[in-house]
Amino acid sequence: MAKKMAAERAVEFVEDGMMVGLGTGSTAYWAIQRLGERVREGLKIQAVGTSERTEALAQAAQIPIVDFSRVAQLDVAIDGADEVSRDFALTKGGGGALLREKLVASAASRFIVIVDDTKLVRYLGKFPLPVEVVPFAWQLTKKRVEAAGCRSTLRMHEDQPFVTDNHNYILDCDFGEISDPASVHGYLKALPGVVETGLFINMAYVVVASDGQQVALHYPDAG
Ligand SMILES: O=C[C@H](O)[C@H](O)[C@H](O)COP(=O)(O)O
């Protein structure tokens, strides 16, 4: 219920004529459902998805999907997160969609993050940080990632490595408390073989959080 409430509040930011980025996961699911209702009631929008799953859900909800390569700018993107720190850094990628999610969020004028309020934390790090890596020599990349100060696990799916929509692997990295997300991201991103990290820093326009009873809007700019 908390995820649904946050998602439905976020959909209120969407207006006629907008180009919308659609996130991935169990919270974004509710945003897609609500947006689909509004489209069926007459709202005119176009959307890009952050995963094949999301594109299929959007199409089922009758939301017009366009190819992201044909879109220069999005008005809003709405997506979940695995953790949100007090300084509005996010961990994302629990569902493996972090790369497309970051591309879509980075193209949006307003990136709206939707969470149940158990995901609001002081520091990131309880949730292992997903890092997308190319399959080639992933074992070497894993060693180099661990030199950043974490223990990492190759994400699996039914006895096989989990493969992202971009045909890459995911290392789930336990750093403990991440007090300086920017330097962790910078270090990892500079490694050959690392495609993207699940750290989203200075990207959120607003975090819409719910405890299942009420919805609160947290704006980074509010200080
Ligand atoms: O890759 C998945 C995404 O980053 C999700 O937005 C994130 O894992 C949150 O998912 P959920 O809303 O299912 O908790």
Automatic annotation (TrEMBL):
InterPro entries attached to this UniProt entry: NagB/RpiA_transferase-like (IPR037171), Ribose-5P_isomerase (IPR050262), Ribose5P_isomerase_typA_subgr (IPR020672), Ribose5P_isomerase_type_A (IPR004788)
Catalytic activity: aldehydo-D-ribose 5-phosphate = D-ribulose 5-phosphate
UniProt keyword Transmembrane present: no
Top-level EC class: isomerase
GO molecular function, one term: isomerase activity
Pathway: Carbohydrate degradation; pentose phosphate pathway; D-ribose 5-phosphate from D-ribulose 5-phosphate (non-oxidative stage): step 1/1
Keyword terms: Isomerase
Binding of substrate, residues: 24-27, 79-82, 92-95, 119
UniProt keyword Cytoplasm present: no
Known EC number: 5.3.1.6
CDD domains given in the database record: RPI_A
Superkingdom of origin: Bacteria
Pfam families in UniProt: Rib_5-P_isom_A
Active site: 101 (proton acceptor)
PANTHER family xrefs: RIBOSE-5-PHOSPHATE ISOMERASE 3, CHLOROPLASTIC-RELATED (PTHR43748:SF3)
Record-stated family: Belongs to the ribose 5-phosphate isomerase family.
Protein function: Catalyzes the reversible conversion of ribose-5-phosphate to ribulose 5-phosphate.
Oligomer and partners: Homodimer.
This protein's name: Ribose-5-phosphate isomerase A
Biological classification of the source: Bacteria, Bacillati, Bacillota, Clostridia, Eubacteriales
